[in-house]
Design a protein that fits this description.
By secondary structure, this protein is α/β, with parallel strands linked by helices. The protein has one domain: NAD(P)-binding Rossmann-like Domain (Rossmann fold), CATH 3.40.50. The protein is 29% helix and 25% strand. Strands 3, 4, 5, 6, 7 and 8 form a six-stranded mixed sheet that branches. It has a two-stranded antiparallel sheet with strand order 1-2. The longest helix is centred in the C-terminal third of the chain and has 13 residues. It is globular.
Length: 149
Amino acid sequence: MGRLKAGPHSPSPKGRGIKPEINGVNSPLERGARLKPGGVCKINIGLFGFGCVGKGLYDVLNHSQGLKAGITKICVKDKTKPRTIPVENFTFTKTDVLESTEHDLIVELIDDSDTALEIITNSLLKGRDVVTAGKKVVAENFELLYRLQ
């Protein structure tokens, strides 16, 4: 949820373009993404939720050639639920992801809007980019989230 600045290439409602810019910085590398050997920029993602959408995102990121983003840790609430990937990929404590410095981006895909708000606000306060699928959490807290970005 970074700030959007006017730019010449993308349409906006007023006919002018918008260019995504996070705190005056344009590229993921400038925002702290890591360089892999060979100078390739990789964005590390901390994921909350591993339902249909979370599994789908995981599959796309792990099976797309040339994609420079990957999920480094997945936080889920149910320790007993069978998973399709090794348990080492998971954590059951949200602070493991929120307090980690290895994540450039937090993706929140859970069904609890109160916990989602906590995850989103914590991440934004730490200067991290956040993606959410939670329409309810955004609708109910838009003013707060807008101020935090």
